[in-house]
């Protein structure tokens, strides 16, 4: 081969590698360039380390005739005050969806969303606004980590029954039900004595010591049926449900595994089978559906999935400017990098105050599971699609280990067609697929794209994933 042809061949290789963004020189350290734009993401986002945030603070401070440190400290103080207040960014659509789930008898709903996205607040707002003809057994499992879900629901039913004693239509039903609930409660360790209104009816009940474990389900069954005999209907709402179902050891403990199976069997009976009640399980883990599946739940028994995402763009920008005191340019910069996640934005603001011109917007959230997912072929294929499109379709959710891995690492969630989402792109148009992987947040999408950009090697060219789907390099 002539020298000229060799040169042309080498030049072609360099150009090709440059186009796909995967060119690496042997022995070269990959330091992020000063300005690296991620294609398909907002033009204002720089993939390299940038001091543009502190420059924006300095410019805003100058316009306000103050210094940068004083300016950013005033924003932090206003943000603190806002987050401690009862004022929240409007999430009415999410609240209404929660209410509809509570009021739909026979429906099992999973509510998923990253931590600190306001799920608990939305739950409380939905409970307050819920129709007056719904009797809700509601519990936050953060108050009972590792406890049996059925045991906790039995306690809640006891407390709820106390409040019913003044309602005329419940009075004829209370004596019998009180005895059943109280007996079931006393039969299990760790329960306090029955509440006074209940214990008044429990004198002549069966020997509670010999009561079998199945009496819990029976007692709760009786409670739900009693409510159904009135003008009201029952609902069960469990916040941070993963702490009880499957539990702290994820079902590894034998006793915990048995408790989880019993609870799932009861939930399926109350919803799909007997249409006695609605059940809403709330979790901050996007891998929660897979944990339930491992504990024995059939995905087909999940009637509805609600993904609590970030707040609307207009509301987020309004909050940053009006409530936190940012000027327009700084607010838009925070939005470009951190989207509509209020908690992460607050973390970034605190970091900016301390780091100043050394602030790195990509170091605010460090997902430990991202590197391992990038190295896994099946997971990486989904991550590439997420970085480009904002989602990745799943061919067979039962066997897709990549989708499961992403969910278990809380980088994203697996949702079914028909899931209620907020602020996500249109996903299931023009496809027969019914499942998809979505990122846990807008900022997570940026982190995925950036991680893939720096880790990209020539091996990613034309690689084929285990499902036989052609994979291109993640273009960023």
TrEMBL record:
<dbReference type="InterPro" id="IPR051667">
    <property type="entry name" value="Archaeal_ATPase_domain"/>
</dbReference>
<protein>
    <submittedName>
        <fullName>Uncharacterized protein</fullName>
    </submittedName>
</protein>
<dbReference type="InterPro" id="IPR027417">
    <property type="entry name" value="P-loop_NTPase"/>
</dbReference>
<feature type="signal peptide">
    <location>
        <begin position="1"/>
        <end position="22"/>
    </location>
</feature>
<keyword id="KW-0732">Signal</keyword>
């Amino acid at each position: 081969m002539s020298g000229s042809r060799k040169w042309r061949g080498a030049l072609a290789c360099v150009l090709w590698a440059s186009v796909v963004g995967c060119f690496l020189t042997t022995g070269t350290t990959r330091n992020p360039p000063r300005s690296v734009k991620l294609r398909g993401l907002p033009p204002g986002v720089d993939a390299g380390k940038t001091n543009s945030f502190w420059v924006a603070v300095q410019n805003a401070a100058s316009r306000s005739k103050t210094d940068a440190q004083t300016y950013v400290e005033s924003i932090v103080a206003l943000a603190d005050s806002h987050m401690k207040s009862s004022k929240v960014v409007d999430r009415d659509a999410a609240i209404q969806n929660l209410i509809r789930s509570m009021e739909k008898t026979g429906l099992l709903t999973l509510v998923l969303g990253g931590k600190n996205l306001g799920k608990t607040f939305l739950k409380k707002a939905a409970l307050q606004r819920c129709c007056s003809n719904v009797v809700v057994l509601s519990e936050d499992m953060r108050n009972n980590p590792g406890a049996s879900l059925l045991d906790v629901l039995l306690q809640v039913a006891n407390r709820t029954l106390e409040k019913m004693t003044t309602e005329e239509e419940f009075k004829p039903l209370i004596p019998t039900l009180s005895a059943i609930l109280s007996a079931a409660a006393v039969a299990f360790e760790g329960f306090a004595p029955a509440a006074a209104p209940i214990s008044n009816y429990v004198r002549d009940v069966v020997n509670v010591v010999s009561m079998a474990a199945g009496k819990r389900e029976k007692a709760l069954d009786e409670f739900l049926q009693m409510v159904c005999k009135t003008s009201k209907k029952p609902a069960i709402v469990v916040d941070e449900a993963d702490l009880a179902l499957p539990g702290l050891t994820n079902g590894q403990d034998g006793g915990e595994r048995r408790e989880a199976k019993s609870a799932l069997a009861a939930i399926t009976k109350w919803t799909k089978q007997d249409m006695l009640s609605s059940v809403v399980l709330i979790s901050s883990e996007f891998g929660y559906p897979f944990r339930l599946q491992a504990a024995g739940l059939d995905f087909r028994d999940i009637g509805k999935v609600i993904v609590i995402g970030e707040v609307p763009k207009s509301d987020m920008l309004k909050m940053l400017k009006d409530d936190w005191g940012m000027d327009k340019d700084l607010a838009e910069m925070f939005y470009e990098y951190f989207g509509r996640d209020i908690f992460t934005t607050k973390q970034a603001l605190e970091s900016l105050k301390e780091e100043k011109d050394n602030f790195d917007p990509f170091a605010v959230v460090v997902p430990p599971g991202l590197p391992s997912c990038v190295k896994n072929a099946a997971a990486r294929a989904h991550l590439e699609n997420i970085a480009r499109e904002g989602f990745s379709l799943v061919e067979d959710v039962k066997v897709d280990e990549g989708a499961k891995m992403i969910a278990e690492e809380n980088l994203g969630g697996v949702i079914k067609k028909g899931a209620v989402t907020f602020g996500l792109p249109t996903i299931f148009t023009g496809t027969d697929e019914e499942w998809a992987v979505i990122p846990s947040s807008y900022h997570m999408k940026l982190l995925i794209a950036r991680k893939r950009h720096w880790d990209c090697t020539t091996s990613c060219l034309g690689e084929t994933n285990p499902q036989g789907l052609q994979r291109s390099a993640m273009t960023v």
